[in-house]
Amino acid sequence: MQVRDLPVGVQNFEKLRAGDFIYVDKTRYFHEMARPAQGFYFLSRPRRFGKSLTMSTLKCLFEGKRELFEGLWIERETEWEWRPHPVLVIDFNEIASESPEAMRETLSLSIRQTARRHEIVIESEYLQTQLQELIIGLAERHRAGVVVLIDEYDKPIIAHLGKGPEALDVARRNREIMKPFFGTLKGARVSECLRFVFLTGVSKFSRVSIFSELNNLEDITMAESYADMLGYNREEMVRYFGPHMAAMAEKLGIPENQMPERLAEHYDGYRFSTRDERVYNPFSVMSAMKRRAFDSYWFETGTPAFLVNLIRENRWHPPRIEDMKATKAMFSTYDLDDLRLEALLFQTGYVTIKEVGERRFTFDYPNREVKTAFLEALFHSYSKGIKDPSRFAMLADYLMDEDLGAFIETVRAIFASIPYALETRRDEAYFHALFYLMVSASGAEARSEVLTCEGRIDLVVAFSDKIYIIEFKCGQGAAAALRQIRDKKYAQKYRGLGKKIILMGIDFDPEKRNVAEWRWEPDEAARTE
Q: What's domain 13-221's architecture?
């Protein structure tokens, strides 16, 4: 049986279908959106999640290119009218946005170039009027409703976040150009010429912020019926990628039946609605199967520098990201004048919905790829100036091998190499944060402030055969830390799992700015069960 190629980085639907690539059929969602005579939609998803391919697919669909959809759900199961419509695509990846003047000029140039291709004359010098003339002209020339597809609408704004006050001012000025530009689509003369409008981006700005003049958009970002429109669910992974998973399993020496779970651990876990539907990051999971190796593929395509800067500026305790809680209003939109880290972390894909409560949502990292790579970035931010910061990479191996002496000596060496002037506040919270970051960044499955019936465990590090329960103290002695683990029965939560449990107390000396003392002991109760 011929195995189709993985379309890593292929964002053009026509190229994908013409080549020998796998296409995960999402056309039933597109049919649902496009069924009404007129629809205005907005969808936010993290980068590299298939937004541009979705745009390209919709373009081909509305252009009536039936041959490209042969065998797909919309061609097999529906009576789709394959009548061609004029399609206007505005991709803000291709629009200069380093200044409001550059954005206005390149947007205007894009509109005028499209008009020339369709032999439409643009008379106005004003940006929004040019868009109006183009849409009306397209409808009249083609005698069909116009389809408008706007990709990465927020690029002129988010490209300037986390770069200081001057860059933030550019973002605000760009926003003031975009508001009336998008508002043009709601005007009476333009609206009657439209068949379908679809906007995508990474972020979801509040309606007051950017969509105040385009308030008829149906936001499907968190709609249950579109929860897995982008990304791959478990059934799709098995159906479309079985041979590639088998090849990867063979190469890595992993039993084939374990590969879906291993891939899920690294790349699955994204949840975008109250419906408990999880999806894999398409770019990461396909990259892993193509290279037949587990790595941080999504993270390598863009660094979250502005998020790291905001976390430091706002003095967020990094372990707080785990089990972060927020109301829907807090995390579902954000504004340039009130940037909320909860919203930024969720919309950019660094955390996802873990649980849905009556009033609040609980969040966590979606998978190992995101957690390990993001916390490594945070660790390097916290530890700027450290000599040879890469030594942290061995910490997970030392814990796995139970070489606790080497583990503590490496931790001490890292703390010792932090420049004295880097941090002035060296309390338990600081040591806790940096310790958590370096262990997590090394690849270990670490959880901070784990709740038990008797209190909160400072750090739990889990492996397939063992669990470390770690308590921190600052100037109180390692014996006090171990005593707290025993007195509060922290280990009880993990007994009965068939794993070895190791208790560890670590005391930090704020004067010496390092580990002063450490002790460990096995959990005797776990050994006797």
A: 3-Layer(aba) Sandwich (3.40)
